[in-house]
UniProtKB/TrEMBL annotation:
This is Integrating conjugative element protein.
Length: 95
């Protein structure tokens, strides 16, 4: 690192800033995963209203993707509009 810093200070700054940004992005993703797990645990407790239960189901479907940030965005976009599983295999409720 010292050799790169002396040879090309601009490149060293670019690499250092890139590493710092990657760490920030990773930390945000970790926090998103943690928040998602807590929200799913709250929903699984069964003490929620129908709207929150529907949002939990949307989050459950979105988790199929391996990208936590994308899963949260999909769940927030849907906001439980698909309803909840009901008798007969279909969904009930939602918008």
């Amino acid at each position: 690192a010292l050799i790169i810093q002396r040879a090309d200070p601009g490149l060293y700054n670019l690499l250092t800033n890139g590493i710092l940004q990657a760490r920030l992005d990773f930390d945000r993703s970790k926090l998103t995963c943690r928040a998602m797990a807590e929200k799913m645990a709250d929903t699984a407790g069964g003490q929620m209203g129908w709207n929150q239960l529907a949002e939990g189901m949307a989050l459950r479907q979105a988790v199929a993707s391996t990208d936590a940030v994308l899963a949260i965005e999909q769940a927030e976009t849907s906001r439980g509009k698909d309803g909840v599983p009901w008798v007969g295999g279909g969904n009930a409720g939602g918008a």
